[in-house]
């Protein structure tokens, strides 16, 4: 029983319940929804589940970065725009190199995109840690500026390019799973090991719990804050690469647009509090999968894709309400009243 | 944030004039005016530069069209000033403009009386503000999270209503707000032409000035932004005022939507207003209001809006600067002014 009780308290457990509910909703509409078949044209596995895994890859990346930013009591509103910058840089470079089957070109493009992401993340980090600006204002400026930078990179065009290896990232499979999803999970594992096997994760949490106390305990906040924002920028650029490799085109106004909400939502669903402190990487990953399932479900049910932000906004309001002191004490009191009544009876 | 500036002291009773206090207050005020003065200087410099470089800037036609086209930004900046003075932020204004304009025009198309539709537009805006305000005040949600949620909600609802532009019916009363009023009949096209929409913005500025500097509510706004606990302990109605602040910001976003929709001839789209929240924040910050709250002036925000207007004009006149750079430049200017504030407040604290 205690094991079950602690499971019920784990936020990612509710995330999985959410995924199952959404999938069942789809199965009710179309009983063959979960079927996985083999696409005769490519010889690969195909099906809605694989689609969900593929679109979840970029969300997993930005949610991972956002987890640490939020754990330090910060926020990164620029991840969606940095995705566009990463995608735009990769597409422009691949177009300029014009090497449709070169692995070298692919790695150069990936390197350039990640480097740009790191630079933009570094600017965020410096503004937050050294200058001392509020995170949301620094990253809000970056959100609009980076969108502008993406447009400048491509000259306002939606650049497309040809590179077979790069295209495989989102369209190829290993062991029947989309490569982008496998890469994303591998990155999650690596980052988890770094965070939990070194003191870095603990330091991030301590800054979020109490910056003054952690400073007194000898933790220097600046390098950690910078690390967190750089990591978020790099991961966002990586998410952008996954997104553009799907269709080999960057949409400078559409790539990553409003994805910052997805990332925040995934993190909150995963149980990391917006007030900072303890974080859950597993939770954020489950949250990202839930968002991907939600995106696909809304499309499948025939609701306009432009309307999904409204649903997500409602979900986030509900989750934030659940986290708030007022609702918690109310629920606790209701619980106590019930037990008291039982005692009286 | 400690109170380093002396805003109009948030007290109910009569002020006892103490000489030492008065002097330090004047010193404090002159310090807090520096960013606003910097904005005025920047504005003058930009206009002079534009006149010298491109000509025809100090020109009745140019100036008046600039004023008219920036009326919605001025209205949004006024609302944002009040929110930021209280130490909050409202990221939803751009999306609220989109929702209220689309819903208002659709109401007009469906036979709702034109004036009723206009009032409903302002009402819808106020409703978004009410939700943000309640979340922030009573559920302790951070302002940027609550208003970010409202931003996506409003944008999503606007997209549910329509993803294609909707057009207000001919002769809708809202269009009257864009009537050209020739104030000065100059030679050829050089007339000083203003619209009722512009005067709505002027009324909003005057109203906000009176509210902030001549009423108890206004003093409470400064009090909340300066030191919320002290304001609470002094018995100021913090909860009521904070909710009111966000309602006001939402309602002003609705009003900005009315003026903007009139100006563009009754066309409303779900993609209107992307990034307008940044324009409003930039205008407020350039105008000298501290992002941390408690100090600033609504007239400064008007100057800030005009700086943005002059920037847009220079970019259009230049022609060599691609429009892609506009958001980067706005962001850069905003950043520069935020840094200026940091330097000034840091020096004052020492």
Notes on the structure:
The complex is a heterodimer of chains A (345) and B (350). Chain A is mainly alpha-helical and 345 residues long. In chain A, 74% of the residues lie in helices and 3% in strands. Chain A has helices at residues 2-9, 11-29, 48-71, 79-97, 103-131, 135-154, 164-171, 179-197, 200-209, 211-216, 221-247, 259-269, 281-300, 308-323, 325-344; strands spanning 36-39, 44-47, 173-174, 177-178. In chain A, helix 3 crosses helix 12 (259-269) and helix 4 (79-97) runs parallel beside helix 6. By secondary structure, chain B is mainly alpha-helical. Chain B has a single domain (33-349), classed as ABC transporter involved in vitamin B12 uptake, BtuC (Orthogonal Bundle). Helices cover 69% and strands 3% of the residues of chain B. In chain B, the strands form 2 sheets. A two-stranded antiparallel ribbon of chain B has the order 1-4. In chain B, strands 2-3 form a two-stranded antiparallel sheet. The radius of gyration of chain B is 20 Å and the shape is globular. The two termini of chain B are 14 Å apart. The A-B interface holds A 75, 77, 127, 131-134, 136-137, 140-142, 144-145, 147-149, 151-152, 155-156, 258, 261, 264, 274, 304, 306-314, 316-317, 320-321, 324-327 and B 89, 91, 135, 138-142, 144-146, 148-153, 155-157, 159-160, 163, 270, 275, 278, 281, 291-292, 322, 324-328, 330-332, 334-335, 338-339, 342.
